[in-house]
Amino acid sequence: MTVIPIQQLPQYDVVQFFTEHWGSTEMVISSGVYDCSKLEGFVYVDEQNTILGLVTYSIREEECEIISLDSIVEGRGIGSLLVQAVEENAFEQGCTIITLITTNDNLYALKFYQKRGYHLVEIIQNAVEQARAYKPEIPFIGNDGIPIRDEIRLAKRSGLY
What we know:
Elements: E1 2-5, H1 11-22, E2 26-29, E3 32-35, E4 40-45, E5 51-60, E6 63-71, H2 78-92, E7 97-103, H3 107-115, E8 119-124, H4 127-134, E9 151-157
Parallel strand pairs: 6-7
Antiparallel strand pairs: 1-4, 2-3, 4-5, 5-6, 7-9, 8-9
């Protein structure tokens, strides 16, 4: 099992992964609308090149934003390896900060990223309502029955790496 750049997989496999796990390749967040199948990223694959985890990101000047992170098998360090690959790549390319956005219901993501040195830097109230205007299939209720309303922006600076 190994982490490889997303470009080493057939595009069809990447599109299929996002369609299966997100309903489409499109991610709508307050920083923009992204086609995740066209972004830079890393993939954790097994010996048969089956995707067990995938992360995508976008670099703008000195900021790297993680757009999506998925791990099919929890508790095996796959997400950590993928985030580490993004961090190493971003800082090598001269980024000074890595950011990401998650929703208020995603307590698992908040815990995951804070354990890895990320800080909460902004709450964007009612951001998901605006995203639903563009992508109406975004659910109203999320993890643990929590209404999905707000986005939370987290960040990690290169000095904390």
